[in-house]
Amino acid sequence: MPQRHSKNNNDLAFFTYDEKRKLGYGTQKERLGKDSIKPFDACSLCLKPFIDPMCCQKGHIFCKECILECLLVQKKDIQRKLAAHAAQQKQEKEEEEERLMLQRARELDAFDQQNHGAVPQYNDKNHDRDKNGFHGANSVKATSYEEEALRTMKAFWLPSATPEAPVKVEAPSSSTICPEGKEKLKLKSLFPVYFTEDTSDQKKPKSLDKTFICPSCKVTLTNTTALVALNSCGHVFCKKCGDKFMAVDKVCLVCDKPCKERHLVNLEKGGTGFAGHGDHLQATDFKHLGSGSGLGLVRPAMKT
C-alpha cells in the first residue's frame, strides 16, 4: 500500500517546520566546555601558567613579562600616533598659509585689473585671441590662483586624476589600557599576587602541575571558586574567607599586614578574548536558509 501524500510531499516551494529542524535552521546553542575556558592560574595574554603574576585593580592576572611588554607596545603606538597627528597639523598649517597667500595674490590681481581695465591690451582690433589663450572681448587675464587650480584640477573619470579623501588622524589618548578589561591601566597600579601552593604529601605524586589552596581554609582553588586578592600585600584567598575574616578583622591572614575592605580585589577567572566567561558560558550561532548559506538547495533525507 503506498504511503500517504502528506508524508511523502517533498516538492513544496517552501520548507516545512520538520525540514527546517532537520537542516538546523534557527539559533543553535551550545554550552562552552572546559577547553574553551581559561584556567584561573593562566595569564590572560599568553594563556599559559603565569610566571611572576601581576594583577590590575579590576582583577585580571598577567605574567609580569607579558603585561610589561604589552604596555611598552602601547606606549610606542601612542608615540607613533602623536607624531602622525603633529605632522598632520603641521601640514594643515602650511596648506592654510599657502591658501592665504594665493588668496592675497588673487585679490591683488583683481584690484590691478579693476584699476587698469580701461587701458587697451591689443594694438590690432581684429586680433581676437590674447596671449593667455582666451577668446573674445570678455576674456580676462588668468590669475596665478586660477592657473594653479587648472594645473591641479582633478578628474573623477580618470583613475590617475581622481581626488583622494584626506585621512584625518585624530589626537590619540595618551593613556594605556588593560588588554582584558579595556579600562585605563598604569604600571604603578599593578601589584604582584602570591598564591599558596599545596605542598602536602598527597598531592606530590599525583600530578606535576601546581595545585593552589586557600591559606585560610585549605580549600583547593579551581575555576568554580571565587577568589579575592589584597592589593596591599598580594596574598590570594577564597572569597568566603575574605568576607568572613579579613573584612572584619582588617588584617591579612598570612602576613598580618593591616588592610581595609577597599583593598580586597575580586579576581576575574575563565575569561579570554576568544571565549566567554562568568555568566556568559553559552555560545549561540544563527543559521539561516537564504541565498549564500548553501542550505537552500539541500533537502533533508526522507525517512524510509
| pLDDT < 50 stretches | 119-139, 296-304
Pairing-aware structural class of the strands and helices? alpha+beta
Level of helix content?
25-40%
Average the pLDDT over all residues and give the rounded result: 76
- By DSSP (H or I, 4+ residues per run), the number of helices equals 4
Helices and strands, in order, run as: HEEEHHEEEEEHEE
Query: Largest beta sheet, briefly?
Result: 3 strands, antiparallel
Shape: flat
Q: Could you give the count of β-strands?
A: 10
State Rg.
37 Å
Strand content: 5-15%
Q: How do the strands line up in the largest sheet?
A: 3-2-4
Distance between the termini: 14 Å
Give a quick set of tags describing it:
304 residues, alpha+beta, three-stranded antiparallel beta sheet, 11% strand
What does this structure look like?
This protein has 304 residues and is of the alpha+beta class. 26% of the residues lie in helices and 11% in strands. Strands 3-2-4 form a three-stranded antiparallel β-sheet. A hairpin with a 5-residue loop joins β7 and β8. It is flat. The chain starts with 16 loop residues before the first helix and ends in a 17-residue tail after the last strand.
Brief write-up:
This protein is an alpha+beta fold. 26% of the residues lie in helices and 11% in strands.
What are the SSEs and their pairings?
Layout: H1 17-23, E1 26-31, E2 53-55, E3 61-63, H2 64-115, H3 144-151, E4 191-192, E5 196-197, E6 212-213, E7 227-230, E8 236-238, H4 239-249, E9 264-266, E10 282-287
Antiparallel strand pairs: 1-10, 2-3, 2-4, 5-6, 7-8, 7-9
